[in-house]
């Protein structure tokens, strides 16, 4: 009989998705680090570098005992890209809601009403992301988004992530090699990343208590 894990995950999502969200949160933390460190000494350097090292290590670990076919890994890769697409859509939407909070037409043109139907589809989500990208690039709106803190790169990510989802569908890849670790060691490593991610999210609630868009960026379990 297989021995039960003695260590349990502290998060309710798949390992790749958790790492994706954690790294996305870390990148946004680095971008806005001064907002955090003025209030939280524990977030000063080398916190960011240490968290990135933990994420990088987790990505080198191959699940022991798993014999994963290329098709399974391709499917997982597509799901990660879809999750990334949901993340960037909600991220830029947060800036739109901050820039034009009462503008239902803007939300419609960005694609918010279509989000639920498209959010889990590898064919529909890229179309929605491109629609949002086109609308966000309208000169007047773009100026408003940037005035609220969005960047050119954030807006471009709508387009790039849509392309990445489409490419993931077409790619035929396999995952080979890598380091191994015991189940408990692997879960401990993942929990360490989750702890840092949770810490950033918790601090953000204080740092951005009056800024919905930024709170949206650091939420632990994005809706979608």
Task: Count the domains.
Answer: 2
SS strand fraction? under 5%
Tell me about the largest β-sheet.
2 strands, parallel
- Quick one: how many beta strands? 2
The strand order across the widest sheet is: 1-2
Q: Write down the Rg.
A: 19 Å
Mean pLDDT: 85
Structural class of the helices, strands and pairings? Answer: mainly alpha
Number of helices: 11
Q: What distance lies between the first and last C-alpha atoms, to the nearest angstrom?
A: 38 Å
Estimate the helix proportion, in percent. Answer: 55-70%
The SSE string, one letter per element, is HHHEHHHHHHEHH
| Gross morphology | globular
Q: Low-confidence spans: pLDDT under 50, at least 5 residues?
A: 64-74, 172-180
Report what the structure shows.
With 224 residues, the protein is mostly helical. The protein has two domains: 28-60 and 184-224, no CATH class; 68-172, no CATH class. The chain has eleven helices and two strands; from the N terminus they run H-H-H-E-H-H-H-H-H-H-E-H-H. Strands 1-2 form a two-stranded parallel ribbon. Helix 1 (15-31) runs parallel beside helix 4 (70-99) and helix 4 (70-99) runs parallel beside helix 7. It is globular. The termini are far apart. The model is unreliable at 64-74 and 172-180 (pLDDT under 50).
